[in-house]
Design a protein that fits this description.
This is Gluconolaconase. By secondary structure, the chain is mainly β. Helices cover 0% and strands 49% of the residues. Strands 1-31-30-29-28 form a five-stranded antiparallel sheet, with no helix packed on it. A hairpin with a 5-residue loop joins β16 and β17.
């Protein structure tokens, strides 16, 4: 699977207009194109004919004009709606959104005012309106299907103990149809009560159900990348399109079918099976970076793990539904040919061999892991939740430092000592024995760090700068400024609490790594691109 480089003239999701700037003697270029969206999850055609796109990791809802590709923000990052996973509209045009990480369902009225309907719906995901009735499903093991009381009373439980129901729709027969991801089936139930019935089984992990004008089910398959058409009466299946895995939802605009992918790609599927990319896919974050033993840059992007090809396109090495994928990837270090040590948002340190489709958990049970690095004594990693830096050795886990203020990035210096970026303390510290000494102070929010040829490089996500600190001379220099890292100025994102079992709490992390030739790569998680910095070729 590859994601083609998008045109650099297209607007990105990042609202800031501050230009990139580098100090004399350096050059900067984009390795991958910026992303238009923060991924793409739930889809629904609005009363205005535009396609409304829920973006979980960006806490944003956008409206797409499928003819022009123009995007309008319906609910912004930092706004009242957090981690929206699916959307629906009532008869007067009010927008309803499930907030999967907060277990909430909210409504945004036509005047732009938002209020929470309920906050006790764990893993709230699928949602649909039908003839004035609002139905919501919980995408979790043992999830429920609910009908909300729009007058404010408790919801009515249609079904419970359903293995991860997802995006649903009422069919022309008046029955409620929904995918059951944990069973790899599509079910239906009478919304007025009764037992569920299986409509289709042995699929590609269905995660949405919509209906075409002829009353046939159209369903996306997240694991296989298939778009299927299914006769609800006979169960007969037809493949409409084979797309990339990671499909999330679909919607019709008239007779035209549009499909979303976790990458943010929106694809139109024609009745004859031909496809058209309406919006290109891209990086969702990105998070940590590593250069593998063969010299290729790799990107940890949460639900995806990519290798960057020479033309700047992204080749999918693994993703959440790939065999052996260790989970939502955050920290990344190359540990051998075809092998990586990673941290996940689920609290694991793992060894990952993507070509062999296998991973092995090295340590588990941690609270919000971030950066990881290899040291002479083992693996060092940062645990933000407890304020610790830990070392994984053959004999077990050692605490290198405790009481730190939001440790995120880690690196190892030439002496084998651990360096750690304390985001909330605004410093990079050196951990040696029982000592924790400040190396670089007066930073706003340091995140990714790396050491190359005796120089410590720090991504300051608060100042939006890349800092170089010569560890021999103590000279500090701002290499680049105006970096599209972190939220745009003026935006304060709400915490992303995670969505078990798929991930734990999610948070930003602008990583940095160095290639053998000294090229630095930076995760521009603000606009969803990767940047490269290197010394000017003319030597100045």
């Amino acid at each position: 699977m590859s994601i083609s480089r998008a045109s650099s003239t297209l607007p990105s999701r990042y609202g800031a207009v501050q230009p990139l700037d580098v100090t004399e003697g350096w050059e900067i270029e984009r390795v991958t194109a910026p992303s238009r969206l923060f991924g793409a999850n739930g889809l629904r055609t609005g009363p205005d004919g535009r396609i409304y796109i829920a973006q979980v990791t960006g806490s944003q809802i956008s409206a797409l004009d499928h003819c022009t590709g123009q995007l309008m923000t319906a609910s912004p990052k930092g706004g009242d709606i957090v981690a929206p996973d699916d959307v629906a509209f009532d008869a007067v045009g009010n927008l309803y959104a499930t907030e999967v990480m907060d277990g909430r369902v909210s409504v945004r009225d036509t005047g732009g005012r938002t209020r929470v309907l309920r906050d006790d719906v764990p893993s709230a995901n699928g949602i649909t309106f039908h003839r004035g009735r609002l139905f919501v499903g919980e995408c979790r093991e043992g999830g429920r299907l609910l009908e909300f009381d729009l007058a404010g009373g408790p919801p009515r439980v249609l079904l419970e103990n359903v293995p991860s129901p997802n995006a649903m729709e009422v069919g022309p027969d008046g029955l409620l149809y929904f995918p059951v991801m944990g069973a790899n089936e599509i079910w239906r139930v009478d919304p007025d009560g009764g037992e569920p019935h299986c409509v289709a089984r042995d699929l590609g992990v269905p995660d949405s159900v919509k209906f075409d004008a002829q009353g046939r089910i159209v369903s996306t398959q997240v694991a296989s990348g298939q778009v299927l058409r299914i006769d609800p009466r006979s169960g007969e299946q037809r493949l409409l399109a084979q797309l990339n895995p990671g499909l999330d939802n679909c919607t019709f605009v008239g007779d035209r079918l549009f499909v979303s992918n976790f990458t943010g790609e929106i694809t139109e599927v024609s009745p004859d099976g031909t496809t058209r990319s309406v919006l290109p896919g891209g990086l969702n974050w990105p998070l940590d970076l590593a250069v593998s033993h063969d010299g290729r840059l790799h990107v940890a992007d949460g639900t995806y793990f990519y290798a960057v090809l020479p033309d700047g396109s992204l080749h999918t090495v693994g993703m959440l539904f790939s065999p052996g994928y260790p989970g939502f990837l955050r920290g990344l270090a190359s540990s051998g040919p075809g092998e990586f040590v990673v941290t996940t948002s689920g609290g694991q340190v793992a060894r990952y061999r993507p070509q062999a489709s296998e991973s092995a958990v090295l340590a588990d049970g941690f609270d919000q892991l971030y950066g990881v690095a290899l040291s002479p004594g083992g693996v060092v990693f940062a645990e933000l939740g407890t304020g610790r830096v830990l070392s994984l050795r053959s004999g077990g886990i050692d605490e290198l430092a405790t009481g730190l203020r939001e440790p995120v990035g880690v690196a190892v210096d030439s002496d084998g000592a651990c360096l750690v970026a304390e985001a909330a303390a605004g410093r990079v510290a050196r951990v040696a024995g029982s000592r924790v000494d400040t190396v670089v102070a007066d930073l706003e929010r340091p995140q990714g760090i790396c050491v190359c040829d005796g120089v410590l490089y720090v991504v300051d996500a608060g100042a939006k700068e890349l800092i170089a600190f010569d560890m021999n001379t103590g000279i500090r220099q701002t290499v680049a400024s105006g970096l599209p890292v972190g939220p745009p100025p003026g935006v304060v994102p709400k915490p992303l609490k995670g969505m078990p079992p798929f991930s734990g709490p999610q948070g930003p992390f602008a990583g940095v790594t160095a290639a053998v030739d000294g090229t630095l790569y930076v995760s521009a998680d603000g606009d969803g691109s990767v940047l490269a910095l290197h010394r000017s070729r003319d030597g100045r």
